[in-house]
Input
Amino acid sequence: MVVGGGIAGTTCAIALHEAGMEATVHEAYDRTADGAGVYLTLAVNALDALRAVDVDLHGLGFDTPRITMRSGSGRTLGELPYGTGLEAAGDGLTSRTVKRADLYRRLREEALRRGVRFEHGRRLVGASPSDDGVVASFADGTTAEGDLLIGADGLRSRTREIIAPDAPGARYNGLLNTGGYASGVPVDSEPGMMNAIFGRRCFFAFTPHPDGEVWWVANPPSPVEPTPAELAAISPEEWRRRLIDLFRDDKGSASDIIGATEKIFAGWNTYDVPSVPVWHSNRMIIIGDAAHATAPSIGQGAAMAIEDAVVLAKCLRDRPTVASAFVAYEGLRRERVERVVEQGRRTGGWKSLHPLAAVPRDLVMRLGMAHMARTGNDPSRWIYEHHIDWAERVPA
Ligand SMILES: Cc1cc2nc3c(=O)[nH]c(=O)nc-3n(C[C@H](O)[C@H](O)[C@H](O)COP(=O)(O)OP(=O)(O)OC[C@H]3O[C@@H](n4cnc5c(N)ncnc54)[C@H](O)[C@@H]3O)c2cc1C
Output
């Protein structure tokens, strides 16, 4: 049983099928998830993991080979590849920006094509061990039984609460997130280039689609965590007014892009989940955001969820018992994902500084990026150069 039909859950069901196991996905929502949020960029390590289980995103979104960073004063801080080449996997991978809804749809199609069953309207409320498996109970009063239960139920995971009731939950990051799609606005950027602008008061990023549309996000700082009701009360026009005000002293196209967006998305808070001490017990395990949500700032949460899903399927394929598969899985994943969460936290911190700290921040970034360009030493390489060899067996 896979609980949660998001990115981790659907990919896991696909990977289990490729490994010769059958899974049913139990998803809380009673319709196909269209995915909260605007769009996301899947870095090369995510594409490598999807390729391991024969899923490609051909036709979705567009390539995002490079990222350029600028300050609010309009100064270029540096430019880097968006994920360096994966020598181990061979070439041909370029990070890709896709609408979240399109990614969900493609994963679901790939899962259905392989015969994976989806049960919608099944919100997990409880789970306990049975003689030779797990019994799950759902909010609609139904139950289901399986050999094991994989909790891919996201940031507010119920499975996490069952496995590790004392684990810390989601940690608010002090940043809000909103965005949209602008049309008819000229921007000074080649298509596919991610432009990250560290404004004086707010972070802004835009990526021009080859068809001319401009996809963007903004991260207004908010030291106090707004309630869902407070967020819902902010109308798109109010967002527009607030954002244009936040960028009023910055150079660049942020205000024009925001002005050219018909409907600004309802905002949401950003969180991470730093370290859950226990990932598995009694034939139950958590993966993806349920186990280690990463601040969106680093653009790796979906990538980690996809890697988790594929590695877990390999462990279940290759280890003789469920317990030994879970141990092998944790050994392969914990250090990497917790390092990514920590790096995401630090990256987010750069976006929420006091305006007076913007000048030294920009200087440090510029010097750091110049050093990287000169030496070729990108400290994030280890994130992108991760390769999953599907054929290789998981050792004891
Ligand atoms: C603003 C923002 C921007 C981001 N940008 C990027 C990016 O550019 N690149 C990147 O790699 N990552 C990005 N991420 C992170 C990425 O979206 C998440 O890490 C990813 O969605 C995690 O996948 P998941 O399957 O673990 O969780 P989810 O995608 O949240 O899926 C969880 C699923 O479980 C279901 N569910 C929840 N509770 C239950 C229950 N009790 N019973 C049954 N089902 C349940 C939910 O309905 C949902 O379908 C971003 C995140 C945010 C918030």
Summary: The mean pLDDT is 92. The chain is about 35% helix and 25% strand. Residues 322-351 form the longest helix (30 residues).
